[in-house]
C-alpha cells in the first residue's frame, strides 16, 4: 500500500520563487517520512487569489485590477519551463511522485492545472475543464484533451480539480481508465467536501 502525503498549506502569493521553496521543503519532509507520493492543493504554484476580483465588473476593469492581474500572470508557470524542471528534478532526487496544482501559462491564457511527476520524470498534466464562477474571468477552459490516468509504481493515478468532482461524466472517464489513486486537489474548505470524497470513493 503506497504512503501518500497530503499538503495543506498556502501559496506565497505573487512570489513563485518563495512558493517553490515551500514545495522543496514539503517534498523533503514527505520523503523523509517515507511517502511515495505527495499531493499539493489546487493552484498551489501561482496561487488561488480568493476574494480578489482583479477589478472586474461587467463591461469594465479597473487600472489597479489590470496591474494586479499582470502580477498574477507573471507568477504562473509553463509546462516545460524552469519551474517545472525544478519540480521534475526534485521528484527524481527524492525518489517520490509529486502531484501539484499550478496556474499554468500558455501564450496569453492561464489555466488551472495539475502537473504530475514521477521519480523517472514529468508524466503530464490535467487542465481544469470548466472553471467555476469568477474563475472563468481568470482561467481558460480545458478542452478535454488532458484527462489522463498514469500507470506508475504506486498505482494508476489521476485527478479532478475542486468542483470537477461534481462532474459525473468526468468521474466516469477516470473510472473507465481504471484509476486506482484518485487525487482531488481543491481550495474548498467546507465540511461537505469530506462527504463528497467519501461518496466518490464508494462510487468508484
Overall description:
- This protein is 31% helix and 24% strand.
- With 204 residues, the protein is α/β, with parallel strands linked by helices.
- The protein has one domain: Nitrilase/N-carbamoyl-D-aminoacid amidohydrolase (4-Layer Sandwich).
- The strands form three sheets. Strands 1-2-5-6-7 form a five-stranded mixed beta sheet. The chain has a three-stranded mixed beta sheet with strand order 8-9-10, with no helix packed on it. A two-stranded antiparallel sheet has the order 3-4.
- A hairpin with a 2-residue loop joins strand 5 and strand 6.
- Helix 1 packs parallel to helix 3.
- 32% of the residues are buried.
Keywords:
single chain; 204 residues; three-stranded mixed beta sheet; 31% helix
CATH class categorisation: Alpha Beta
What is the 3D shape? Answer: globular
So how many helices?
5
Distance from first to last alpha carbon: 18 Å
What value does the Rg take, in angstroms?
Answer: 17 Å
From N to C, what is the helix and strand string?
A: EHEEEHHEEEEEHEH
Regions with little confidence, pLDDT below 50 for 5+ residues: none
Number of strands: 10
The CATH homologous superfamily is named Carbon-nitrogen hydrolase
Helix fraction, binned, reads: 25-40%
Strand arrangement within the widest β-sheet reads 1-2-5-6-7
Mean pLDDT: 96
Q: What is the beta-strand fraction?
A: 15-25%
Domain CN hydrolase: 2-204
InterPro entries: C-N_Hydrolase (IPR003010), C-N_Hydrolase_sf (IPR036526), Nitrilase/CN_hydratase_CS (IPR000132), Nitrilases_CHs (IPR044149)
Pfam family, one: CN_hydrolase
Protein name: CN hydrolase domain-containing protein
Amino acid at each position: 500500500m503506497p504512503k501518500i502525503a497530503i499538503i495543506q498549506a498556502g501559496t506565497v502569493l505573487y512570489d513563485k520563487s518563495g512558493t517553490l521553496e515551500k514545495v522543496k521543503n514539503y517534498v523533503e519532509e514527505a520523503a523523509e517520512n517515507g511517502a511515495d507520493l505527495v499531493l499539493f492543493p489546487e493552484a498551489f504554484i501561482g496561487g488561488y487569489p480568493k476574494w480578489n476580483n482583479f477589478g472586474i465588473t461587467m463591461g469594465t476593469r479597473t487600472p489597479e485590477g489590470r496591474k494586479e492581474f499582470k502580477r498574477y500572470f507573471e507568477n504562473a508557470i509553463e509546462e516545460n519551463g524552469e519551474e517545472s524542471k525544478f519540480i521534475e528534478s526534485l521528484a527524481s532526487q527524492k525518489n517520490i511522485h509529486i502531484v501539484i496544482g499550478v496556474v499554468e501559462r500558455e501564450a496569453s491564457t492561464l489555466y488551472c492545472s495539475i502537473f504530475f511527476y514521477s521519480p523517472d520524470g514529468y508524466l503530464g498534466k490535467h487542465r481544469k475543464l470548466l472553471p467555476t464562477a469568477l474563475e472563468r474571468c481568470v482561467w481558460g477552459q480545458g478542452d478535454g484533451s488532458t484527462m489522463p490516468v498514469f500507470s506508475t509504481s504506486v498505482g494508476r493515478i489521476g485527478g479532478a480539480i475542486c468542483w470537477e468532482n461534481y462532474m459525473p461524466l468526468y468521474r466516469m472517464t477516470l473510472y473507465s481508465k481504471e484509476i486506482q489513486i484518485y487525487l482531488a486537489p481543491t481550495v474548498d474548505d467546507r465540511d461537505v467536501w469530506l462527504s463528497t470524497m467519501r461518496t466518490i470513493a464508494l462510487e468508484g
